[in-house]
Each structure stands twice: as C-alpha cells, then as structure tokens.
Amino acid sequence: MDLHARLAAVAGLCLLPLLPLGVRLTHLQVLQGSELRSRVAGEVLRTTTESFPRAEIRDRRGRLMAQSVPFWSCFAERSRLRDRPAVARELGRALGMPEDEVLRRLQDPARFPVVKEDLKPEELSALSAARLDDKRLMEYGVGVQLRYRRFYPNGDLARGVLGLVGTDQDGLAGLELTFASRLKGQPRRLAYVRDGSGRSIYLDAQSPAELPRPLRITIDRDIQFHAEEVLRQTDRQFRAQGGMIVVLDPETSEILAMAADPADPLRNVMIQDTYEPGSTFKTVTAAAALNEGLVKESETFFCENGSYAIAPGVVISDHEPAGTLTLQGILEKSSNIGAAKVGERVGAMRFYRYSRAFGFDIKTGVALPGETAGEMKPLTGLTRVVLAASSYGYGIGVSALQMANAYNALAGGGVLHEPAIACDAPEDAAGEAPCRRPTAVRRVVSEATARTLSRMLEGVVESGTGLTARIPGYRIAGKTGTARKLDRRTGKYSTTSYLASFVGFLPLSRPRWTILVVIDEPQGQYYGAQVAAPVFAALGRRLLAMAGVPPDQPAAVAASRP
Amino acid sequence: MRPQPADASQRRRVLLLAAGAFFLMAMVWQHVQATRLGYRVEKVRQQILAMRCANGALRMQLESQLSPANLSLQARTHLGMSLASPESLRSLDGPASAARTGLLQRLISRARRALSGTSPA
Q1: What is the ipTM of this complex?
Q2: Which residues are CB-contacts of A105 (< 8 A; sequence separation ≥ 6)?
Q3: Which is higher by pLDDT, A481 or A107?
Q4: Which of A254, A267, A324, A479 has minimal Cβ neighbours within 10 Å of its Cβ?
C-alpha cells in the first residue's frame, strides 16, 4: 500500500465519527429546520413594548408646568409568590428594609403588591446581585419595573387647567385628558431574545417610535401665579366660599391665566360651572342698543327713583335710587331699572341674538373637557319680565370664560375670538410672540360701538361704581357686578349670599389684558365694587409693573404722586 | 523548476480548507461578538434608564426651586424684596432728571450744564 492510500485510510478513519454527526446535523437543519426554528422563536424570542414618558407641558414661554419622572419599582406577583418568608428575607436584605415590613407588603391583597418604589441605583444592583431580578421572577414572583410619575413643579399652580393623570399615566381631567393621546405618544415594539441565565439581548425595533413632543400652552406662569395669589388673599380677607380669575389676551383671546380658589385638578369651574352674572351683563344690553342705533348716547331714561313695577307684583329696584340717566349713567350707576328699560327698547329678538353673538348659551370651543354652554331662556321664554331681568344679568347662567371672552371682544374692537389654551407654534419657538393664530368667530358689534362702549366703561371706573378698580396713570374700562345667589333650598334669591364680580380691560389705549374676577359669597362686604374691583386693580398693578407698560394717562400718575 | 500538477491541486485544497476554516472561525467570532455586544447594549440601556431616573429626580428638585411660589417666598423672606408697582416705572427715553439722583449723576449733570453755559431750571 502506497503512502497516499495509507494517508487516505487514516484520514477516513479519523473523519468516520463525524459522519453520523453530519447526518444528524442535516436532519436537524434541513428536515426539521423550520419546525425547530419556530419552537426556538417561541421559547427565547420575545417582544416587548417600550413606552416613553408622557410629554412635558410648558407655559407660553417654555417654562415647565408638568413632567413625567421615571422611577424603578419593586413588585411581587401574588399568584407566583412562593415561600414568602424566604423572599422577604432576601428582599429585605437587598432593599434595606425590615423583613417584617417586606412580609407585610407581600401579603397585600393586591394582585401585584408593591414592595418598594423609587429604588436607588444601589438597590437595583443589590436586587440583581441577590438574583431576585427578572431571572427569578418566574421562581419567586418578584420583579422590578420602570414606571413614571407625573410631577407638577409649580405645585397647585393652574391645576384646574392642567388636570391630572391616573397611576397608569392616562389623562383624567383638564389638558391631560384633552391632549391624552398627543401627550402619551406611540410606544414602540422591540424584539429580544432571552438567554439561559435570563439576560436579554435586544434585536430590533418592530415598530417605529413616536416620541411625544412637549405641549406648549397659552398660560403665562407668572400671570397665573399672581392671579392665584391675589385671589387667595381676597378669599381669606372676605372669608369667601371661593373665587375665579380669568385673564385673556384681547388681541388673540389666548388664555393667559385661569385661577380658581380652591383649586381642584378634577374640575375647572371657569368653564364647567355657570353663575348669574348680574350687572356685568348690562354691557351686552347696552352693546345691542348702541349697535342697532336704538339708543343715542345723549338720550336719557327715567329710572323711577329706584323702584319700578314692571308687572303686577314684580318690582325692580336699584341699589342707589336714580332719576334720569343716560346710557353711560345707567352703566356708571349700575341701574337695574335703566338696564331693564334699555332691554325693553332692544326687544327680546335682538337681545337674544346679541347675547348669543357675544358667545353666551354657546360653548366657546376651548380645548378643555366638560365645557358648559351656559343657560339662557329660549327666545319664546323671553317674556317682558324675563327680558327685563336678563337685561341686568339675572335668570341667565354664564361661565366665567364666556363672560371674560365677551368683554375681550369689546377690548379687541368688536370681534369675538375663540379662546385658546394650546399653542400652534412648536415648543422651541417659545417667546413673547402670540403662540397661536387667533380664530375669529364673528364680528359682534362695529368698531365704533366697541369704542363708544369702552369709553362708557371707562366712565364706570373713573366716576361710577368701579372707582376701586382704578390704577393711577392708566385708563381702565370695566363693569362691576353684584348678584344675589339663588337659594336652592327655598328656590328664592338669597338676601345673605352674593356673588361679587368685576370684568374689564387695561390699559384702554391699547388693551393688553382682559381680567374677570368673581368672588363667591364674600362675608361682610359683598358689592362687586368693594370686593372684586380691588382685586382687578391689584392684579392689574402687578401685570403692568411686570410687563413694564408705561402709563397711558401720565397726568393722572403725576397728580397721584405726593 | 516548474511545480508538479499534483502539488498545485493539493495546495489549492489546503488553501480551500484554510479559507473554509477561517470563514467558520469568523462566523463563530462574529456570533460571539454580537452576543457580547447585545449584553453590553442591554447593560447600557439599564444604565441610561437609571441615569434618566436620577436626572428626572434632580430636574424635579430644580424646577421646584424655580417655581414662582418658591422664588417669591425667597425674594420676600430672604432678600427683603417687595412687589414692584407701576408707579416705580421710569421711561429711559423720557426726561432723565428723575433718574439723575445719584451723586455721580448730579456731578455729571452739573459739569454738562457748566460746559453748555445753562442754568438749572
């Protein structure tokens, strides 16, 4: 046998054991390949969803209002828990907790009792070292999970607007609910394999991630803070049941502040509740009369010296008896009788049309949940008596936002805009510029009427019931309101519970803010002029100083200086 | 001297075997590296999450400190500040006399007046 043959024989003998191996491999790879691959995929290949923290909410200048903060939580799965004392011992050691405490938590009747939240990095490492991480989840029924907590860095500031989220990070109220899907984003699906020791190797993303972008809102954090502070101070001073302040931008109807006391994240009283506006509604009656040319500025109305029997058994009275008054005088003295007579002149049809044109009895369309349309008698229900009462703001229900927006239309030259709460512009464009293109709803009154009415409202502040809203050096237009509250028990108007309000805009030469103040059931003093108008002035002073707006009536400021 | 045909084919076989072995080795190496990288990626992911938690907690503290309520409290209690009023606003492009109340400003004003030869109003 030559050398080649011998070498071939040796090589053959060496390779012979590999033959069955090759046959087996071919059998596994080729004949059973697809079946085995699917079995393996089922056992080690997993998919998981990776969710992202809920998007931040920022104010109009890009300052943080809400943020989701991640944290690690250690939990147990009740149905899989075995040998609780042993688990409690190991967990207690890893998490630095007393064994009894861990055991007590493990015995919680919840399906997934939480052992500890806000795990520190060293506690996470200790859990891994104790082999109580994911690998032993099946065995012990214990695991760790990344969770998110919604955090509002400014405390209760604007909580009625922001709303709140549940433990699963779903929006429950306010903006958190309205923009729930936008804030939450789209979680992505990831494929991964898990090895024998329980460790994961991520393979690929199966669906693209849609990272939620921050939501910028029209609220100005500083204005909101000042509004809430002055409101709290007033409520304390007058031991009031509560109060509301709405601040709007007259040019765009952007909501700059919405303050309520007490603050309730589940309820935004400024859009969800209605109140009888009282005298602040006289402006609507006057606007209808002026715009339709039914009343001339110089025309006078006899105000019956304070008592007017409009129908048998129905007497309208004024808080301050007056004789003959012009339309401006009616607004300045806040005469109910004068307003009722102007309302009669306007007529039910026009009054109804103008009230709706100003946005009453219709939802404003603001992007906040649970908005009320308000309450107003239908046209057929506007009898002589009802029309007279409605002319001075009784028998109708309005939301605070509706009332502020109606005055905002006057401040903006007679055009009603849709109030805005969310900005169009991207988050990085935060700045002084309007953050949303204004949406004009309709022209309510002519520019000339708006100007005339604004001048009359200036008279209310300069020489009428709104004297306490004055700020030396600045021209202000506004109207006081004092409404008796309806006693739900007796069905009659209370003689002890009042709602004091003031709504106006400043500075009149170029309105920057429309402010509505409503104080619910103030004790002691209760007139809008005594309770709400000073709040308007206090907030107005803060806003003017903050924005550095120079006086538009410099002579008055010079005269007021000592 | 030219190589024999048998030697050439043998060398080719050896080369093929070597290439095959090298290819197999490369495949094994790549698989091992991919697995190792996978573990590293997972570890880094965990680190990122832990850092995100820590960062979130720190940011939470910072934003709480910067909240208007806290700033206002600090300004009033620790710095003795009070709210500005509109009366305290001064227009810089208006008459400057109100702003020239400091000693240096008064000296400058006096010097200017002396140079221009005007007397104070």
Answers
A1: 0.76
A2: A113, A114, A115, A116
A3: A481
A4: A324
Yes or no: say if A129 and A94 are a contact pair by the CB < 8 Å rule.
yes
Chain A residues touching residue B86 (CB < 8 angstroms): 471, 473-474, 541, 544-545, 549, 551, 557
> Which CATH code is given to the segment(s) A221-560?
3.40.710.10
CATH superfamily for domain A49-77+113-216: Penicillin-binding protein 2a (Domain 2) (3.90.1310.10)
Position B60 pLDDT exceeds 50: yes
> In what helix (H) or strand (E) does residue A46 lie, and over which residues does it extend?
strand A45-50
- Report the candidate in A218, A260, A283 with the shortest Cα–Cα distance to residue A400: A260
For chain A, report the end-to-end CA distance as a whole number of angstroms.
131
- Kindly give, in sequence order, each residue whose CB lies less than 8 Å from that of residue B15, ignoring residues fewer than 6 positions away: none
CA B102 from chain center: how many Å? 42
Instruction: Give the tokens for residue A285.
Output: 């009656």
Greatest mean pLDDT among A146-150, A266-270, A421-425:
A266-270
**Could you tell me the two tokens for A514?**
């429309």
Cis check for the bond before A262: say yes or no (omega within 30 of 0): yes
Contact in structure between A358 and A287 (CB atoms under 8 Å):
yes
Q: Are A204 and A191 in contact (CB under 8 A)?
A: yes
Determine contact, residues A551/A527, Cβ cutoff 8 Å. Answer: no
pLDDT digits (tens, 9 = 90+) for A259-300: 999 989 999 999 999 999 999 999 999 999 999 999 999 999
Amino acid at A537: A
Out of A72, A222, A548, name the one closest to residue B53 (CB). A72
Q: Nearest-CA residue of chain B relative to A549?
A: B86
3-class secondary-structure state, position A32: coil
Q: A–B: how many Cβ contacts below 8 A?
A: 91
pTM of the model: 0.82
Where are the domains positioned within chain A?
Answer: 49-77+113-216, 221-560
